[in-house]
Amino acid sequence: MSSYPVWVDGAFAEPFAPVIAAEDPGFALGVAVFETILYESGTAYFVAEHFARLERGARELGIAWPPRHDPRAALAEYLARLGPRDAAVRVTLTRGVADRGPTLVVVARDLVRVADPGAKVIVSRFTKRHDDPFERVKSTNRLRNVLAREEAVRLGAWDALLPTEEGDLAEGTWCNLFALSGGRLLTPALERGCLAGILRDQVLRELALRPLVFPMVEARIQPDDLRVADEVFATNTTGRIVPIVEVIGVRTGLPGSAGPVVRELRARIARIEARHRAEHRP
Question: The domain 6-109 is classified under which CATH number: 3.30.470.10, 2.20.25.90, 3.40.50.620, 1.10.1660.10?
Fold first, then answer.
């Protein structure tokens, strides 16, 4: 396991050092929100979007905002210590001990890459309520997601797709779902209990400006849609556009990275990131 610096409430600590109060509800009860930011070749991508979502989640969970330590300043200090090393940088804000206020933690991990032609996924046995408002908060309370992803790994898959209690597929445990099926590019609407992913939003915004030949529709995705899909892919912060080659037990033989929609969207995201680097050059 690689070790990375750990930043907690204005100071650096040794990796694996005990730095969170046992009484902190973020540790004891999962009352905390977090963001994972892609840091690559000296650039942190979509920081404004990540911290806007962090703020929304904090307010939803009753975590004081703004916190006593500025997340942007903390991230900048952390990246200066990290240097040129590519990583997934996680910023976590907990409710904190009552008389001290929120606790802010910044730490990093190695990037996990999915090699082409793509990944396998499963449909999990764990379900979620589509109408639960907390499904749209990126909190640390993620037991179902952890167990579902462990189930996927045991079956040789990269991730698990989580169905709602009504059977349609909402999202993966750490990604959003897209499928080209029936002549339409489908992705679940937020009302189906999925998180508004940062890359999901970038894709939807890009397709609203420059549509593909296929209409983009936010709609329910049923397992049957995947059985007849021409392409299936996922989006997440560190993997960007992750092509899917197999939904275990549902569909094999998907084109993965050879799919024309995946190729086109990867090129578009690369152009968006190039503009981002130019606008946010240190």
Answer: 3.30.470.10
